[in-house]
Amino acid sequence: MKKIVMISLLLALCGTMQAQYRSPLKTKRNKNDRSNAISIGVKGGVNWPYMDFTDPNLAQLPHKPLYDTLFLFPQTINGTRSYKDTLLLSFKPMFGVFVDIPLNEHVSIAPEIMYVKRGMRTNYMNRDGLNVDHSIRSQSVDLRVPLVFNFKLETLQPYAFVAPDFGLVSGGNIQQTVMKNDTLLVSYDSLAINASNMNPFHFSVLGGVGMRFNFNFNKFSMLMKIEAAYNYGIMDTFSKMEHDGTTPPVNVNAYNTTGKRLTRGLECCISIGIPLKFAEKDACSNFKDLYYYNKD
Length: 296
Prior knowledge:
Elements: H1 2-19, E1 39-53, H2 56-59, E2 63-64, E3 68-77, E4 80-89, E5 92-102, E6 107-109, E7 112-125, E8 131-144, E9 147-150, E10 158-180, E11 183-192, E12 201-216, E13 221-233, H3 240-243, E14 261-275, H4 287-295
């Protein structure tokens, strides 16, 4: 429900901004219009990650949102100072850089390099009657090459895109607690992610929709894009060492590595870019006219 509300707010924002935006299709393109130029810029947003399992025994486990603490509030109880969570967030930040390259009026490519956080969390009673809380938090650097289909309508500039997503896991940790009758038996506070407990490579397919805005000012132009996408993981994130038994999973005998563990995620991002050159005329195109005007 929260994800639906977030997407609805983004669409409402797009509509509000578009009401204040003059479409280039309704006005004569001026010499400073760079809407068809190659642009470079920055991109940032949030990702709601989770993981799917092909093994039915793992798929039926109660997987939960992967919460992280945003603020810690200090408190003192019986003379002992501790910290209390004040706000937990299930979304993860993501950011990077992009290049927008128009191929024609309706098709473009927009390669990007993104820093993305992924993961999952589950809490269940294992076959030995132990309460297991298991979470994975990974970080990766992803190379994406979206193929963008632009629909330049009379007053709107929506688009749809699809992209391969190649990622390299750069770090993260696994946390786990095992309890019985409120007694802590095992605790892994922060087990570092490496090639022994996670596949270092990531591959997925990204698909989504967005809205594009081109702003032309006296001295420069600016591109802004607002988009929502779904990331569908294809490559298994279990490590080869886990599958062949060289390295047993952290929660062995409770959380096996049968089948595949696949990443999923809903993303919402905003991109801001600057065109590299004028689309129709270069920066000195009106020098002659200005020269003779001033001379007279």
